[in-house]
Amino acid sequence: MVKPRLKRYGGKQRITYRIIAIDVQSRRQGKAIKEVGFYNPRSGHIKLDVSAITSFVKKGAQTTQTVHDIIRRANVLQ
């Protein structure tokens, strides 16, 4: 099963995240199927590939709670 979830990047106190589609059994830093977005919690900057996210969700992917909140904040799944 595939899940869109966060992958951590950056150094200490300069954390950014990439939103990736990855197999459920893979680790957080594992190889992603596809990168579908970017999230910077310090500045609140969100960049999403809307078509890729909606295609994964239509195929049955379940987002993590944090990614779901980010997507909802960006008004993608309406």
- Counting copies of identical and different chains, the oligomeric state is single chain
Number of strands: 4
User: Numbering strands along the chain, what is their spatial order in the largest sheet?
Assistant: 1-2-3-4
- SS strand fraction: 25-35%
Instruction: Spell out the helices and strands N to C.
Output: EEEEHH
The biggest sheet, with number of strands, parallel, antiparallel or mixed sense and barrel status, is:
4 strands, antiparallel
Mean pLDDT: 89
Query: Which ranges are low-confidence, i.e. pLDDT below 50, for 5 or more consecutive residues?
Result: none
Computed over alpha carbons, the radius of gyration is: 12 Å
Q: Which class of secondary structure composition applies to the elements?
A: alpha+beta
The amount of helix comes to 10-25%
Span between N and C termini?
23 Å
Taken from the alpha-carbon principal axes, the silhouette is globular
Query: DSSP helix count?
Result: 2
What would you say this structure looks like, in words?
- Helix content is 23%, strand content 35%.
- The chain contains two helices and four strands; from the N terminus they run ββββαα.
- A hairpin with a 6-residue loop joins strand 1 (2-9) and strand 2.
- The relative contact order is 0.24.
How do the helices and strands line up, and which of them pair or pack?
Blueprint: E1 2-9, E2 16-23, E3 34-40, E4 45-48, H1 50-58, H2 65-73
Antiparallel strand pairs: 1-2, 2-3, 3-4
Task: Output the keywords.
Ribosomal_bS16, globular, chloroplast, alpha+beta, Ribosomal_bS16_dom_sf, ribonucleoprotein, structural constituent of ribosome, 4-stranded antiparallel β-sheet, 4 strands, 2 helices, 78 residues
